[in-house]
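To the wet lab folks,

You asked to see what we're planning to order before we commit. Fair enough. Below is the target structure as tokens, and below that is the sequence we designed to fit it. If anything looks off to you, flag it before the synthesis order goes out.
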């Protein structure tokens, strides 16, 4: 636990420093002071309201036992297995299958999944994804990831402002103080540096959450199968909210960006094949996979055999003859 707090503090220091330097580039000494004040306010707001901010970014709507009984039932059962308080449950009306968790503590946590994920995955695979997100909550990763998304997004906005300023004649202080080359370098390097900080912290956390999530369900294959399906679909289906706020991409279970811009150069997530191989190790520890067995080939073959199916035929999210539209209402 102390290590997570130390990582959070380090993340805030580095991202705040980048933000302040960007403020200096945009507005000189005065801009640096203003950026520092803004960064302090953002850190405080992120600490207490990061969950609300992120959920709004993705347009997530809260659901309960009446609007999404099967999903809430899965989250409650797994929360009990993980010895966690019941988190709030949200659904994003988004065709791309994906999910994330947020909240500054287990007592103020939330799990969000997309309608695309509910339509694509079986009950067991949804459980694997939910368990992964609960692992992030148990490890208290959610605060760090949400704060990184908030401050990283602000850095990207400053870089965009500087870019337009140079193109259309603004940001004269930046041009005079560091020149065109320096300003252009700042436009490229600052968001890249923020992304690298997020990436360094996020990748190790994904492996940890995969492992803990597999132990929560007791079935590593569920998550392995879900990761393969989600990854394949995410590359084909754009996630508009994520494309607008790429600084929040590290929060999702797989990279939600389709690779159309500079953000695709650096991925905050490990390769899915590597994550599945790590889950193979967990399965062997549990005695569920013999030596020489492979989730990678099996899940790839299963995904390739699948053909498009109507939502009522996929997993636990059945529609009734009365016209119910599934667990998201």
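Sequence we intend to order:
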């Amino acid at each position: 636990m102390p290590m997570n707090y130390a990582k959070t503090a380090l993340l805030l220091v580095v991202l705040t420093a980048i933000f302040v330097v960007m403020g200096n580039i945009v507005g000189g000494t005065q801009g640096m002071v203003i950026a520092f004040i803004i960064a302090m306010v953002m850190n405080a707001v992120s600490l207490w309201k990061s969950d609300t901010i992120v959920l709004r970014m993705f347009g997530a709507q809260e659901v309960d036992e009446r609007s999404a009984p099967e999903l809430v039932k899965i989250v409650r059962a797994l929360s009990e297995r993980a010895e966690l308080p019941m988190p709030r449950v949200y659904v994003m009306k988004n065709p791309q299958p994906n999910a994330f968790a947020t909240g500054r503590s287990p007592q103020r946590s939330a799990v969000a999944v997309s309608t695309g994920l509910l339509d694509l995955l079986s009950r067991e695979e949804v459980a694997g994804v939910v368990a992964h997100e609960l692992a992030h909550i148990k490890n208290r990763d959610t605060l760090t990831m949400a704060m990184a998304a908030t401050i990283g997004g602000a850095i990207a906005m400053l870089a965009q402002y500087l870019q337009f300023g140079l193109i259309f004649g603004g940001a004269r202080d930046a041009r005079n103080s560091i020149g065109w080359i320096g300003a252009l370098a700042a436009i490229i390097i600052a968001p890249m540096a923020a992304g690298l900080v997020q990436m360094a912290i996020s990748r190790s956390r994904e492996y940890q959450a995969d492992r803990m999530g597999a132990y929560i369900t007791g079935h590593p294959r569920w998550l392995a199968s879900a990761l393969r399906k989600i990854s394949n679909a995410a590359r084909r289906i754009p996630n508009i909210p994520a494309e607008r706020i790429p600084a929040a991409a590290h929060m999702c279970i797989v990279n939600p960006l389709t690779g159309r811009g500079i953000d695709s150069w650096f991925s905050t997530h490990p390769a899915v094949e590597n994550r599945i191989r790590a889950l193979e190790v967990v399965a062997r520890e549990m005695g569920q996979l013999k030596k020489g067995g492979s989730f990678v080939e099996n899940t790839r073959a299963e995904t390739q055999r699948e053909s498009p199916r109507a939502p009522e035929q996929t997993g636990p999210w059945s529609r009734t003859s009365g016209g119910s539209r599934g667990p998201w209402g």
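Structural context that might help your review: The mean pLDDT is 76. The two ends are 38 Å apart (CA to CA).

Thanks,
Computational group
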